[in-house]
Amino acid sequence: MGEARYHPLSLVESDDVGEGTRVWAWAHVMAGARIGKDCNIGDHAFIEGGSTLGDGVTVKNGVLIWDGVTIGDGVFVGPGVLFTNDRTPRSARMAGAFSTQTQGWLTPTVVEADASLGAGAVIVAGVRIGRLALVGAGAVVTRDVPPQGLVVGNPARRVGWVCHCAQKLRFRDGLARCDRCGRLYVESANGPILSEAAEG
Amino acid sequence: MGEARYHPLSLVESDDVGEGTRVWAWAHVMAGARIGKDCNIGDHAFIEGGSTLGDGVTVKNGVLIWDGVTIGDGVFVGPGVLFTNDRTPRSARMAGAFSTQTQGWLTPTVVEADASLGAGAVIVAGVRIGRLALVGAGAVVTRDVPPQGLVVGNPARRVGWVCHCAQKLRFRDGLARCDRCGRLYVESANGPILSEAAEG
Amino acid sequence: MGEARYHPLSLVESDDVGEGTRVWAWAHVMAGARIGKDCNIGDHAFIEGGSTLGDGVTVKNGVLIWDGVTIGDGVFVGPGVLFTNDRTPRSARMAGAFSTQTQGWLTPTVVEADASLGAGAVIVAGVRIGRLALVGAGAVVTRDVPPQGLVVGNPARRVGWVCHCAQKLRFRDGLARCDRCGRLYVESANGPILSEAAEG
Fold it and tell me: Of B2, B167, B177, C13, which residue has the fewest beta carbons closer than 10 angstroms?
């Protein structure tokens, strides 16, 4: 992998970017952003100081990541995904006109390892998206998503569970074998429990 | 505040930008756009000629503002917010192939002072968003929003009222005191009426 | 029209762009993208290799078009429209960690001639959007859209039919004359059939 590589039209002001990470055209990584190894940061993405990305994160084009957002290893952040860090934004607050909220307004967000966020998903500040979860394209996430949860819609609601390979699981009698990769899961109140790895 | 300041990677073609306004990387302010004082225009934002922004407007990254859009003083336009100015777009129209609509297709939009538009909100041409309203993240606004209205969803529906500080208000017996800033409101058919300012 | 024209701040790596096409600031057309004549590609748009655009296509600002997407002549792709090409994305897949899906993951999408996609629409991989259809602003399209179909919402549902000029049609007794352009349509199970052109 070697050193991080930056497209000549990118703007990388952070000195905390891991080996093998690539940053593409017109993407902006601000000072104070921490980015792991072997990430891929697409065109027009923006990563603010105070955010943290693990290793092997894919950040597709046009994604906006703010101070207070923590993204685990191996997460897929689809094209145009929008994070937020303020549940009650006011332009005037910065100027002090609306008092009382000049501090403590930042609400952190966490995306656990290997989750995938579909194109155009909007992640409202304060949620935790569980490991290997799949957020459908265009979903507006206002509540926590459990590990391997599949959520869609506005507001996002859980409509099922997904496999490690991201395929939707179909449980019958408390068991599901993935249509695509063959992993076997046992159903539990907290979601699928991997029973047997894929053969492939 | 002094002069407007433009990031060297921005593109500002308007000569009608107020003092103290800052424009960041890869943001494009076209000729004919009018922008007030002390605004902040984030990376990758686009502001077309024929649009007007008041003073103290925050335009977060990736926002698209078109001819026909008027934004009042102190408005917060969240990341990735999309405006529109045409309710019936056709590519061929510009070439005259679909006759009859080569003129008069532009539908204006107004956002009143101190409103806040959450991340990824889509504002359909022709609406008026009232003073201090809060449009939730990912909302698709197809109808007018009253002052201090809180709207969410696709299409956006009003689910409550917000305080000057943007906190959701909880009315009981016709009164609401903001949980956060302490302002007191009286309920009316047209929304909250400020009765007493915050102490803080 | 003559040659294609590229803004000095654009990045066009494809050599398959038709005459008269214009590409604006910070737009990126990758090698292997095929773009027809007289298209207009707005600021911050991204067009990946393996995608195909017909003639006279309008691609507004910030649109993301991927390998596997085919867009017909005369299509209007509104601001911030997001395409996708993978229904089950995982960041780790590229590194082989989730086996079995390193091939065959790309799902193609087709937009037929003269359709219009409203601002911020998200097009889930695998759908076909019919000729002259109108996808409403902010719609999340998860299923095929019939020709002249009008779809809105998340997920997008068909709520009517539109005229060639994009105006919504109002059928009565199996006939609709467009309010705006005067075209006359006969209702059929598959949508409107043009009976008589507009006078204008």
Answer: B2
